[in-house]
Amino acid sequence: METIAISKVTPNSDNPRYIKDEKFKKLVQSLRDFPEMANVRPIVVNKEMVVLGGNMRLKAMQEAGWSEVPVQVVDWSEEKQREFIIKDNVGFGEWDWDELANTWDAEELDRWGLDVPIINKEEEEKYTSKIETPVYEPKKDKPSHSQLYDDSKAKELIDEINQSDISADDKAFLILAAKRHVVFNFEEVAEFYAHSDDKVQRLMERSAMVIIDFNQAIENGFVELSQEIQENFMQDYEE
To answer: Residue 181 and residue 190: Cα distance in Å, rounded?
Structure first.
């Protein structure tokens, strides 16, 4: 390992990994807070000083204003270099979230760049992969329409758009976008569905306001998709 001018190191244009904006900011901050870490995890380069491992760390070091960086120079064949680029970026294993919650502070973990799923006890059952197919049976009185959604944010944005001096076409577009801020209370929506007649129910199904899961296809697919997303996420963001 040696320390050289950062200007002598060339990023690898074939690197398959990248870090999105917020994660990149955390990486930059982590290097500023704990620069000693780079000495035990140098940038891996070939003899031409092209990065094989640590492309995003090099970019973060540049952002942090470093003038020198520690590098590990390797003399490998082209085939081994290509193999290393991929293997160095493969995420093996999974986080034990229970162990992390019991041992580490969540705010610290977030500041260090680990995306910690923070779920309170009331939401815990809502966000589990052990889902049950919904059964829409009336449990209480039919809710009013005003109980089904909250459009206060959307109305606030629409009022602001209407009061602006932008073109009519721009207003029409932004008003459509503002309607995305309508928040639906799906617990009440399900109750409303259970009390509605067949025509209303069919239209609610076509609008995806409720889900009818024939043969548990959605339930099974959701569990499989959730696991796949989690695995891909860990591979994409593991440093």
So the answer is: 20
